[in-house]
Amino acid sequence: MASFLKSASRIPPAYFVFAALLATLWLTKPQLMNLNVMGIFIRQVAPLGILVLGQMLVMRVRSIDLSGAGVLLLINYLIASGLLGDMPLTLIIILSLAIGCAVGLFNGYLVAMRRVSAVIATLAVTVIITGFVQFLASGKPPGNMPELMNDIYKMKLGPIPLPVIVWTVLTMTMAVFLSRFVYGRFVMAVGENPTASHFSGVPVERTVLVAHVLAGFFAGVAAIVQSASVAVGSLRLGLEMPIDAVAATILGGVVFGRGDGGVWGPFFGVMCFALLFVVMTSFGVPEPGKQIARGLIILLAAVFYGLNTRKS
Question: How distant, in Å, are the alpha carbons of 37, 226, 231, 250, 297 from that of 57?
Answer without folding.
Answer: 31, 21, 29, 12, 21
